[in-house]
Amino acid sequence: MRHIISILIENESGALSRVAGLFSARGYNIESLTVAATEDPSLSRMTLVTRGNENIIEQITKQLNKLIDVVKLIDLVDTSHIERELMMLKVRTTEQTRAEIRSLVEIFRGQIIDVTPTTYVIEMTGPSEKLDAFVAATNPDSIIEVVRSGATGISRGEVGLHL
Amino acid sequence: MELSGGQILIQSLKDEGVEFIFGYPGGAVLHLYDALFQQEGLKHILVRHEQGATHAADGYARATGKPGVVLVTSGPGATNAVTGIATAYLDSIPMVIISGQVPSPVIGSDAFQEVDMVGITRPCVKHNFLVKDVTKLAETIKKAFYVATTGRPGPVVVDVPKDITDPAIKVPYKYPKKITMRSYNPSVTGHKGQIKKAVELLLAAQKPVIYSGGGVVLGEASGQLTEFSQLLGYPITNTLMGLGAYPATDKQFIGMLGMHGTYEANMAMHESDVIIAIGARFDDRVTGKLADFCPYAKIIHIDIDPASISKTVKVDIPIVGEVKAVLEHMLELIKESKARPHKKALEAWWKQIDQWRSVKCLEYDRDSALIKPQYVIEQLYEVTKGQAYVTSDVGQHQMWAAQYYLFDKPRHWINSGGLGTMGFGLPAAIGVKLAFPEADVACVTGEASIQMCIQELSTALQYKTPVKIINLNNRYMGMVRQWQEFTYESRYSHSYMDTIPEFVKLAEAYGHVGIRIDKPEEVRPALEQAFAMKDRTVFLDIMTDRTENVYPMIEAGKGHHDMKLRVALGTPTDRELA
After folding, report:
1. pLDDT at position B354, please?
2. pLDDT tens-place string over residues B381-400
3. CB half-sphere exposure, B219, CA atoms < 13 A
4. Catalytic residue at B479?
5. Most exposed residue of B27, B125, B137, B537, measured as fewest CB within 10 angstroms of its CB?
6. Are B122 and A21 an interchain contact pair (Cβ–Cβ within 8 Å)?
7. β-sheet with B389-392: strand ranges across
8. Contact (CB<8Å) A59/B311
9. Is the Cβ pair B307, A13 closer than 8 Å?
10. Under a CB-based contact definition with an 8 Å cutoff, are residues B48 and B403 in contact?
């Protein structure tokens, strides 16, 4: 099953490699990993998407908690949550395909943020699944490049990952 | 008080109560060594190789319970220390390793003797630090000791760039009395409800086994474990790391369990209905084939590390907490409880265990004209009256020491259990002897292992640490040869050395006493002679039976009930006996 683990970690150099190293050393799988500062400059927030059965996810969360720099973590899948990922997708366009691409982007509530005579750059946010669906719906021959941020997430309501 | 970084580091160690520092100088730590030169109180032990420094500090830590401290230079000094750091990590030994680093401005430029020590050690330390600011140095040292010694202990590396210790830069010094870290809260008392459930399950057990490990030794909970076991009257087995936590000469002790554990311990595990694992981690050398592990048992597990719980074996009642506190709580509950251990069931269970004991799985040929290694360990036990600190290297001799030296006290059996590091024994023995100069310290080793850190014989002379080296010389890497005999149709691929040094001459060259022993009847007198020489390191080179194997054995991939015994049993085994 897919899990989204959200981690508050001390904003120290090497913190990212401690997490990444743990996954490679213990043979866990990482689908995506994002990291950025928070409102508190001493803390970073990481969002990690992984897959595994219940036992593996339990070990992953325990091993992450064991890292001295990890302050707190939650598995967002355990709670009601919102997931978002940002994607930028560059496609080759022709006069014949432009209208169709524009309408597809509209259906998916994306935006075209750069236009040249032969290309569009499409920006889209949403759960990773939606971005997968958009990529699947786009003519693969027209795709020049796809850039995805990896999933991030936040829990709904009063529940939150904070100090 | 204004001090330089070098002085701050030394003063911090003193303020932390450090007595010995095991190290080797080099370019990146010259400022530190200069500060060390100009102080008194902190004793530096100059080893002959950085691996020796880590094992000596480790031996000191295992024997005393205090953290071992190591000081090495950058680059090769640091990488040489890695084996010893990993050794401590796998056995959860508290150590603080200070490694020099090239000056901050040149980090990352492939400078002379530069390696990314923080990166290299990350997977084999509890935590590590790179010091970036001299004003944070004292606090970092405090944190290192705090992390190393609390919770599940482990080694902590502090990497110190040379400019941080610059004698020209002085900053105010104050060693923090206490430290808190928001991301690290190690002490836990154990869930009360879980403890209660565990006690109920234990008191209802018909075929219980207490299985305890190194966590009891590290957690100073031997007294509690002994009281707990004796109050219940249940059989107790120890892991390799747990030996000595319960007196091995007591009748309730059924020996070590696992790959080379006793028949009675492994069969009892297999047939039990309730297991309580205390400070043990279900290591693969203990469990054997996981699918066959304790098939009829409910399992209680006490451990300070939540990540140890249900890692390999799913447990029924997990209790996360310090073993000492949890056992104390359990003792209270048992004493208050109206329930008592099931007397009849327990009698039947002990009868069964005694039947397994009657197999005498540790018997060996006592009439052999060759020296049997088991006999040497038995004689060592007698000559030292069971009171010695025994360190070991890794291999057959390690297993024989574990099986035949009966440890009645914790912290007396000192070996590399998790990593299995050859070369550990001699430097570890030096560390122990420094801590306990009056005690008998023996290093049980083999002719292959001893050569991995033999250079420390020189350290032993310099610091007058008269240890006794019991070299079980079978002219083979015995354990490798044994596996090759059992699983590779006796194709002894590179498990022997065509050239072996004359250890007697070697010992003498290092300034020690060397004695070669060829006959069984010489063993006892030679041991007595060696231990009578209180102020000399003695190297006993004992020519043992080359073909001797360690029994019993659970071969890789087999279960506890499927043991290879020296003499095949003519009687039915397994559940038929039950």
Report:
1. 97
2. 999 999 999 999 999 999 99
3. 31
4. yes
5. B27
6. yes
7. B413-414, B389-392, B441-446, B468-473, B538-543, B513-517
8. yes
9. no
10. no
